[in-house]
What does this fold into?
Amino acid sequence: MDVALGRVPASLVIRGGTLVDVCTRRLIPDIDVAIYGERIALVGDSSHSIGEKTRIINAEGLYLAPGFVDSHYDIESSRLSPRRHAQLTLPRGTTTIIEDSHEICNVLGLKGISYFLEETEGLPQKVYISLSSATPPTPYEQTGGYIGGREAEDALRLKRVLGIGEVMDYAQLFNRGKRLWEIIRAGLRAGKVIEGHGVPSPPEADAWLCSGVSSTHFSGDVYQALNLLQRGAFLELKVSACKEAISGLIEAGIDWQMVGICVDDRPADLLMEIG
It folds into this structure.
């Protein structure tokens, strides 16, 4: 507040860039951004917030845009540690990742969650965790880890664990499989997000949402997308598989507040090539 009012100088000011305003869908030229510590204090004319020790970055000819938030991602698929992965993706604009822990939990169980939280602590890239709902993926498989209701309750108390990841076993979901439903109930009791998987059609789509699932990482067509959006689902569009759907949603003039973007899986060589 004091920085915005000019009482205290900003730590950093980025001056003269063109703001990509995603709220009003405008490009606004000659904008400053004043920062104090880790917080943005002002967007506009920062001349009254500059002091002797304020660091200034000249952004003339450059664009200022919010960081990319990947709403569903598996760092493990890159074959990189979280820190090395951040070295590749943060400079390319990804400032926040929602890490789905399905892969690592099937190897290590809750130890995989602890590893991710420890490895990403203090990184300039924010990494949040969604707890695997599929450890093991089906009742007929055995894996290195196991997550049921008790394990879910423990994990959901941890800082930066946001919810339950990709509920994908429809047979267990619709037939009230004990382990899966214990996890879902733990998530709902904790007030956390329950993420889905895939593109169910009505009436399964309605039942899927009634279970507490509120989102899905999506790879389908525009008609399937509209079907889920009209029911209140949040879509995490997998860009590589949804180009036609994205074009159709633009033409439909939807409210994009219910749509996010995700990569899901990407190996390191492709990260280096396209981000």
About this structure: The mean pLDDT is 94.
